[in-house]
Amino acid sequence: MTVDTKIINISLANPRGFCAGVDRAIQIVKLALKKYGAPIYVRHEVVHNKYVIEELRNEGAIFVDEIKQIPSGSHVIFSAHGVSKLVKQQSRDHNLIPIDATCPLVTKVHKEVNKMYDENYHIIMIGHQGHPEVEGTMGQIDQNSPNASISLVQDLNDVEQLNIHADKNISYVSQTTLSLDDTDKIIKALKKKYPRIIGPKTSDICYATQNRQDVIKKMLADHDLIIIVGSVNSSNSNRLVDIAKENNVKSFLIDNMDMFDPACLQNKKKVGISAGASAPEVLVQQLIKKIKQYTEVNLVELDGMEEKVTFKLPAF
Fold first, then answer.
1. How far apart are CA 12 and CA 226, in angstroms?
2. Is there a catalytic annotation at residue 133?
3. Given 133, 135, 246, 281, the catalytic residue
4. Rounded to 5 degrees, what are φ and ψ at 11?
5. Local structure of 273: helix, strand or coil
6. Tell me, which fold does domain 7-18+206-301 have in CATH?
7. How many helices (H) and strands (E) does the chain have?
8. CA angle 49, 55, 56 (to 5 degrees)
9. Cα 296 from chain centroid?
10. What are the backbone dihedrals phi and psi of residue 301, each rounded to the nearest 5 degrees, phi first?
11. For 80, what's the count of Cα atoms within 13 Å in the CB-facing half-sphere?
């Protein structure tokens, strides 16, 4: 089909795509394959992007959900989302050689949780149930006790349901890939319910998550469609779509070009494109190429913050 709009202005968000933690995790898998040869086992998808996972799978990575699926004595890579203490113990019991690709910003949250638990705090984690980062962070606590525990809240209703006594020591941490606005609402509700609650010295929300959300907010006023490149299981990619929709701007997530429907461009004059922190730039370029098949495009790279964050690779 052809699109009625004669020319579409496309703005490319900056920054977009890979963050330092994702880039580090992918490098770790590739370096492990180069050093030890295929196969290399990875516990859970190392990052949440189908294109990246297929690329690594083709190079010899095998992704598993359970440690028992890995042959004893093999190397195992822990994903960027982090793992629980139980998973690490299972790896030791199974005589596996671990390589930790956990994002350092997630490791920071793990340290916060362990410190608070040791100091007899009841910890409230703000996050999405079932997300591997949440499972890994909550799994830093082996067992809740009357003196220290960890609980999950996903929304304001969960805050209302909390029944921790107000005179207890209470703290909170957050999943790193949440919406800043949603997290702030929950934190305010927690502080209202528990005035003595304490949080981390700096926000747990990842710098890349925050930067990408800030750019989308700036694009809302003058774009009538925002397309986010990312996989459906990518929390930070979904949050970008949510921000646009919550502000009455049409938006959707695209994982591969087979999902693209040119009808979305009909009567659109200005389209914004961004990518979640686990989405590679090659997919953004494929999307632009796809759009050009249906209409003339005026392409603009928006000015934005230059991200200079890098994370050191682990020795292995």
1. 10
2. yes
3. 133
4. -105, 130
5. strand
6. Cobalt-precorrin-4 Transmethylase; domain 1 (3.40.1010)
7. 10, 12
8. 90
9. 33
10. -90, 115
11. 28
CATH number for 20-103 (one of 3.40.50.11270, 3.40.640.10, 3.30.429.10, 3.40.50.11030): it is 3.40.50.11270
- Note whether 20-103 and 105-193 share their fold: no
- Closest to 60 (Cα-Cα) out of 47, 48, 81, 42: 42
Contact indicator for 59, 46 with CB cutoff of 8 Å: no
Q: Spell out the per-residue pLDDT of the chain, length 316, in tens.
A: 556 667 999 999 999 999 999 999 999 999 999 999 999 999 999 999 999 999 999 999 999 999 999 999 999 999 999 999 999 999 999 999 999 999 999 999 999 999 999 999 999 999 999 999 999 999 999 889 898 999 999 999 999 999 999 899 999 999 999 988 889 999 999 999 999 999 998 888 999 999 999 999 999 999 999 999 999 999 999 999 999 999 999 999 999 999 999 999 999 999 999 999 999 999 999 999 999 999 999 999 999 999 999 999 999 8
Q: Answer yes or no: CATH 3.40.1010.20 is held by domain 105-193.
A: yes
**CA 209, CA 206: separation in Å to the nearest integer?**
5
As given in the structure block, the two tokens for residue 247 are 């502000």
